């Protein structure tokens, strides 16, 4: 009898391809903005600046890359789905109303939602972060609670920071902040949690007998 191929194994893709599909649209947005900033385009009798035009192109590009990622892996995380929905809603509003403020609000709402959801889980004595990242980070329950609590406050802090940046700084400054600042902040956050991973990490016992 022929053994059926493992579906999860067949759906694995190259990390480079996955990273390219996830970050490609963001990089393209940044590069396109640098080329079109300060320019005005008249379409259908209405003037649009470069930021609005780049946003209009970013929406379908993100959806296409997200669709390819889903096709290749067979699944999307809740974060990816939520991000795509908010990009369509807030990016669409910015283009439709010719008002860049809506798109700038998107990170604020994303981080408020993520921080709020983690907070609700904590009030219930649960780590909803564990449900999403347990396979990638095998740590004990106490570690998950500490990490979730810190990430909750971190997300809420990013929401506040995004509001301050886009309301007080230039569009170009905000684009740099969104492209590099937010990404670097999240990366540094997990780097600084090394002590939690070390103290509460669960090591697989390679010498444990295999159950029959």
UniProtKB/TrEMBL annotation:
It is a multi-pass membrane protein. The keyword tRNA processing does not apply. It is found in: Cell inner membrane. It comes from the Bacteria. One of its GO terms (cellular component) is plasma membrane. The chain crosses the membrane at residues 19-36, 48-69, 81-97, 109-129, 150-168, 174-191. Keywords: Cell inner membrane, Cell membrane, Membrane, Transmembrane, Transmembrane helix. Plays a role in cell envelope biogenesis, maintenance of cell envelope integrity and membrane homeostasis. Belongs to the YciB family. PANTHER family: INNER MEMBRANE-SPANNING PROTEIN YCIB (PTHR36917:SF1), INTRACELLULAR SEPTATION PROTEIN A-RELATED (PTHR36917). This is Inner membrane-spanning protein YciB. It comes from Pseudooceanicola albus.
